[in-house]
Structure prediction request, 288 residues.
Amino acid sequence: MADDEYWCAALNADEALAGSAPVAGAHVFVEHLGPWPSSPLEALELDYVAELDLLDASVGLVRRPAPARATATGVPENPTVIVSTAGRVAVTRTGGLPSPTALAAAVASLQRGELPPGWSYEPWLLLVCTHARRDACCARLGRPLVEDLLAVADQDRLWETTHLGGHRFAPTCLALPSQVMYGRVSGDRVAELAHAVARGEVVPDLMRGRTSYSPAVQAAEVVVRTRLGVRDDALELVGSRTEGDRTTTTWRHAGTTTDVVIEARQGRERQLSCGKTTLEARPVYEAV
Prediction:
């Protein structure tokens, strides 16, 4: 069977990126060296996972890229923990897994604009999905992306991560603290992306969306950035309202406001994963 008849990333290469990022206002990542099961949190104790489920945040596992990673497995003795809210990302190292209560407190502190005691701010991080057991495309395309990033970016800013959602857009990665998710990052775009993230900018045509926005607003941001040629963080969402399938958004940049109307419609049925044979439809978001 030819590659384009099997790999979900190839089968869905025509699907629009904008509006495809999962929605999450906060992110929590705990260092785990692997192996990573298909459902990543199954690598942790059941009682601990049950408490994590109460967090108002997206939770995943991370590990350093292979050249800098310890050869052990599971949770290291002093795991790194990453917490991010819109515009802020902080890390700490703990003796064993941090309690869900402590994680919730860290998220709340960042949301208030405060640094939790014992944590330190990071200027930026880039997390690449390499979760092979979730979907083959994540490893097949994610690991080469990590290798390419290591050649152009500070390895202390790079992490491999479990499922980010949307493996058909692989290779996919999440930039923090912007909370912008990217997809289909080809080798010739790696340096551009790394340098943009380090400067606090975005690459609009690679954006799946900002996870702190709804899918329709994610798509609107890409539209307005493309129209205005804006890559910096000075673009402000003034407001949005949704009526039926249409979402009207207003944006401000350099003293000028721009309105974008996005319409949601049902997309065609697709094979959303390499491991699935059934077809499913997902919404698509278009400017009108």
Remarks:
- The first strand starts at residue 26 and ends at 31.
